[in-house]
Structures are given as structure tokens and as C-alpha cells.
Amino acid sequence: MVTIGMNYKVIPGKNETFEKAFSAVLEAMQGMEGHSESHLYTDVADGSSYLIVSDWSSEDAFTAFMRSDEFKRVANWGKENILAGRPSHTVYRK
Question: Who's near 72: CB < 8 A, 6+ residues apart?
């Protein structure tokens, strides 16, 4: 089992758009093999900073999701001009 921490910085005023997009991503994740659960958190000191914590059976399962058509269909970060920078991901092994 691995936990993936995905850090996102959102353009001010795009919070609601990001949160709606995350809901679509979460729905797609739920159908993916190897996904256990995911949660979205926001930094109380900086409302434009988000963290998604996601549990997967393996890093390969997470990578397969990130490359999947399902993810590409719902992740509209670029098209919607939501992010203030490139996201960073950290893998935590249990």
C-alpha cells in the first residue's frame, strides 16, 4: 500500500472550479483498480493551497490511473486555467 500526496496551488478565484474538478477526479478514481480512498484538504493559512491524500495498492496502480483515459477526461486543470503552477506529488510507502 502507498499513499500519494498531491500538492496543488490554485489561481485565486478558481477554488470552486478546482473543487468541482476534484469531485469528478474522485468519481473516476473510485472505479480504478488499486484505489482505496482519497481526501481533499485545504491549507487554512493559504486557501489557494490544496493537498489530495490518496491511498493505492501500489505506485503502479496510481501511475496507471494518472495515465488513464478516465483521468484525462475529467482532469481539466489546464483547459480551465485553474493551477498557479505545476502540481507536485509525493509517494509515502507503508
Answer: none
CATH number at residue 45: 3.30.70.100
**Tens-digit pLDDT profile for residues 33-58:** 999 999 999 999 999 999 999 999 99
Structural domain tally of the chain? 1
Mean pLDDT along residues 58-64: 94
Cα–Cα distance list, 53 to 6, 41, 80, 81, 92 (Å): 7, 8, 22, 22, 10
For 59, other C-beta atoms within 10 Å of its C-beta total 13
Structural domain that includes position 78: 2-93
Cross-strand pairs, 9 = 49
Q: Is the pLDDT of residue 80 over 80?
A: no
- The letter for the amino acid at 9 is K
Could you tell me if 56 and 36 are in contact, meaning their C-beta atoms sit under 8 angstroms apart? yes
